[in-house]
Specification:
The structure is a single chain. It contains five helices and no strands. By secondary structure, it is mostly helical. It has one domain (4-172): Up-down Bundle (Four Helix Bundle (Hemerythrin (Met), subunit A)). It is globular and about 70 Å long.
Length: 178
């Protein structure tokens, strides 16, 4: 006759590694989504050698310039990241605070600063997701039901959506050979 408590322990020992494997797989999938690629062009692909002369141009009928899309992506991603990790974070006013004031970059270095900021914040979101100490399912204490899992998925979805728009604009402006 077996001791029921030993059976419970054996079952728990088998479930813990399985749960850890699932958690590791989820984190890996989230990182793949955040970093892009697979079925989509990556941010690196789309931004590499992006011609300066078209960064502030709106294609006929397009509501945004490449600059406006890049800055919107940077601001929104920054806001999601900061909300996820800082209880004192105050989001920009919606929707105006999520878009630049002008279709053209304010100076020659603004594009590079925006790309750099976007990449830094993406790395920080990836680090948050990769950290095994981050409970992906726990509600963010200062939120109203959001979790890190939700915020990571929101970031990946938002970035993919607008990256597709940015790639389309680049094609329409005749600056894509991919």
């Amino acid at each position: 006759m077996t001791n029921p408590s030993n059976g419970d322990l054996n079952r728990q020992e088998k479930e813990v590694p399985h749960a850890m494997e699932k958690d590791a797989a989820l984190r890996e999938h989230l990182l793949d989504l955040l970093n892009g690629g697979s079925a989509h062009a990556t941010m690196q692909d789309v931004l590499e050698d992006f011609p300066a002369e078209i960064r502030g141009e709106r294609f006929k009928g397009a509501p945004y310039s490449p600059w406006e899309l890049l800055e919107h992506m940077r601001i929104a991603q920054w806001d999601i990241l900061e909300f996820s990790r800082d209880p004192n974070h105050i989001s920009p006013e919606f929707p105006g605070g999520y878009w630049p004031k002008s279709p053209k970059p304010p100076d020659a270095k603004a594009w590079d600063r925006s790309v750099h900021g976007f990449r830094q914040d993406l790395e920080a979101m990836c680090a948050l997701v990769a950290d095994e100490g981050t409970d992906l399912y726990a509600r963010i204490p200062h939120g109203d039901g959001q979790t890190i899992l939700r915020e990571a998925l929101l970031t990946a979805d938002h970035n993919a959506y607008h990256l597709g728009q940015l790639l389309l604009l680049r094609r329409m402006l005749g600056a894509w050979n991919g």
